[in-house]
Structure prediction request, 517 residues.
Amino acid sequence: MIEHWRRLFGARDLLYTWTIRELKVRYSGSLLGLAWALLYPLALLLVSMIMFAWFLRVPTGGVPAALFLYCGLAPWIFSSGTIQSSAFALFANLSLVKNSSFPREVLPLATVLVGAVDFAVSAVLLAGLVVYYRRPVGPTLLLIPVLLVIQSMLTLALCFFVSAALVFYRDVRFLVPIALQFWLYLSPVFYPLDVVPRKARFWYLLNPFAALIDGYRHVILFRTWPPWQPLAWAAAVSVAALIASYVHFKHVEWEFADRI
Amino acid sequence: MINVHRVSKRYRLGKPATNLKQAIAGWLSGRPSADWVWALRDVNLSVNAGEVVGIIGHNGAGKSTLLRLLARTSKPTTGRIETKGHLAALLDLGAGFHPELTGRENIYLNGTLLGLTRKEISKRFDEIVAFSEIERFIATPVKHYSRGMTLRLSFAVAAHVNCDLLLVDEVLSVGDARFASKCLERMRRLRDQGMTIVLTSHNLQTVVDFCSRAVLFRDGSLIADGPPEEIVDLYSRKSSHSEAIDDQQALRRGAWV
Prediction:
């Protein structure tokens, strides 16, 4: 394991170069470029406003609906978008995997970094909404880095797993969008945690993403500290998932070149 | 430097199970879902620092498989491989290039793929560009390059990697005859600096001129090991008529060093 880490550290310049490459390639030839990182969440916000704020009148605890929904959407788009594109992180670079001996985890890692850049852009809009609606903020904002670290670990874990799985089973490309749909509606992105029946709350919170979204809303919108048990659970799940998926990834990476 | 100990490698023949249905059917029936082919059988080879080893043999004899295993892109089925020192592999020119990026960006991309740091690339940047002879097009996306230009740039990056062990698979015939001889010249300089080089080649003359040692592969087994003249001679004599035709066709296609 230490040898893996040493090699990965040695490849940090590759990780940087590859991330820049992904960003450049993604936005090259598109007229609006990086603005899409903002337009996509805006479009989702618009349609979810129509559906959940106007038609369904989801309770938001007194927070403007746009802010409430966007506070869940921005982190959701980071995780789901990254996992979706990570599926092809290895698969789309077959010849490279076959002919070059760099540490393979660089490819899914770069996908997460690219997603993080988009997330940073969309977070500016979140900050803008907070200012626009004159929401007071407080010291609870200090918890944001912790939430970000937990969310990134969870996302990276799934990226390791999904990118490796697609090399072996092409079915994964169809399974991922379905799984993400389930995950979206079983996380409090479009509704508050309160609407989940008390009886189901325990099972609902086994999903680590539920505690994360709820956590963001607590610290950004309500200036309160989120309950610590679900967050501790989310952190434990994320760490365990990251370790397990990395070990799995390094265990099967030898077969990538032969399978492709 | 390199120690290959009783290495065998087997591949699936035909299509492996790449969807769940096939995989599940395979598990249920309890029998292997594919035939296997042995690409390497019980290969032993040890290479000392500073040696230049040419691997010869017919197509499918296991030459490229051995280089892939040495480059650690794949793992032997049985046996073990040890290599010491920093390793760079030139298995397929142009594999790390992205058509949308400029020559400059691709130099950094390819260089870091070969294990260089960005700082090291910056230091050698002018040298790489000069060697590849594409100064005028360095800010142009690679998709507008000719095939020859791409290969030249790709070789130029790889030829400026500072490594202890260089693996080269059939990629020395880059561009026109003049550039090919420039590449060979560059390889000679690396050799004379003491770099250990393992290459595969269909051009027997190159092996005789350039290598200090040659090994002959046949059907996945290493069948001869010694001075290049002797091994090349043995290979030429052992080649049956039909295999000689294969080689001639390879020569005509230009798939040789």
